[in-house]
Amino acid sequence: MASPLGRLSEEARREVMRLARPFRLRRGEVLFYPQDPAHAVYLVEEGLIRLFLLGRKDEEATLALLGPGGLLGEAAFFGGTYGAYAEPLVYTEGVSFSGRELALLMNKSPEVARLFLELGLERLKEAERRLAEQRLLPVFARLARLLLRHFPDGEVPLSHQDLAALVGATRETVTKLLGEWALKGILELGYRKVQVVDKEALARMLEEV
Description:
Blueprint: H1 10-19, E1 21-25, E2 40-46, E3 49-54, E4 60-66, E5 71-72, E6 85-88, E7 92-98, H2 99-108, H3 110-136, H4 139-150, E8 155-156, H5 160-167, H6 171-183, E9 187-190, E10 193-196, H7 199-207
Antiparallel strand pairs: 1-7, 2-5, 2-7, 3-4, 3-6, 8-10, 9-10
Helix pairs in contact: 2-3, 4-5, 4-7, 5-6
């Protein structure tokens, strides 16, 4: 996926990249915690980051799943704390910006301001879509959509527990569904890995919802 910074003019892109600092994270490294002071805004260029909260009994509630082009940490524009956990599910890299410096550039450049507002709006729409799916779709449909939307090459380097957390279901339910789909030849199962081999079959399931 092309970087959303490519939507900018060459001059505006140079100004933005002058502020950029690269970041690289391995799976399991936490980018930020809820109580961390919000200083930086992050733009994902490769990989997958999950934003989530923990309940009183350590139940996890996934707020967003951000792949290439995803923006997170917008609280840095306003101060305060991040308010959520951000953790990569796979090797992830991208660029970060000082919230204060980027805000100053946005004040000077309507073009840059428009881009980052669009990225923030895209994440808001994604959160609304996710909330609607959690309330309206059965687990099998949420799982099928997750596999098709976020893993277009069919390779899913996640455990059953990871997938369960992402679709708001129990590990047992997800394991049962994956096993049924494997028997039908829709996918292949491995250690911490799922390989989708029949995307059309998953798409047909969604047509029936």
